[in-house]
Amino acid sequence: MKRFAIALLFLALVVSAFAKKNKEQVTIEVVSTVNSTVKGELAGNGIGVAIHGKKIVHTDAATMKVIINGEHAYMDCYEHHKGCTPIAPGMYNGELEGKKGGVWIEYNMPLTHKLMRQHYIVAGSW
């Protein structure tokens, strides 16, 4: 019986450690979106550059003017691995990430109606 109680307590601790923390649900008004692409060449004396020559750098940036809880903010895309899809002006649901200043925005992709989530970070105010 003691073993069962200890195993149950251990299981409860493990489950609570991995439980999703509650994030604050907010409504986000996207006022405008600015998307820009920066493309350039990088040269140097690293091993990769020595073998392949110049390295081409391509970066997409998405910045939005939003209103969250009555506050005006600029939001920058924080999806490093794939970039962000531009979001049209309108009202969206999202989650505040707490101390990190991040916001997850949810929207439906046009035509496919697939639910998407993108991560943005507060970049200033307007």
Mean pLDDT: 78
Tell me the fraction of residues in β-strands, as a range. over 45%
Count every helix, treating DSSP H or I runs of 4 or more residues as helices.
2
Distance between the termini: 62 Å
Order of helices and strands: HEHEEEEE
Number of DSSP E strands:
6
Which regions contain 5 or more consecutive residues with pLDDT less than 50?
none
- The domain count comes to 1
How would you sum up the major sheet? 6 strands, antiparallel, barrel
Overall morphology: extended
Radius of gyration: 21 Å
State the share of residues found in helices, binned by percent: 10-25%
Going by helix content, strand content and strand pairing, the class is alpha+beta
Strand order of the largest sheet: 1-2-3-6-5-4
Structure described in brief:
The chain has 126 residues and is of the alpha+beta class.
Which characteristics define this entry?
126 residues, alpha+beta
Structural commentary:
- The protein is α+β, with helices and mostly antiparallel strands and 126 residues long.
- It has one domain (22-124).
- The protein has helices spanning 2-18, 47-52; strands at 24-42, 55-68, 71-77, 90-96, 102-108, 115-124.
- Strands 1-2-3-6-5-4 form a six-stranded antiparallel barrel.
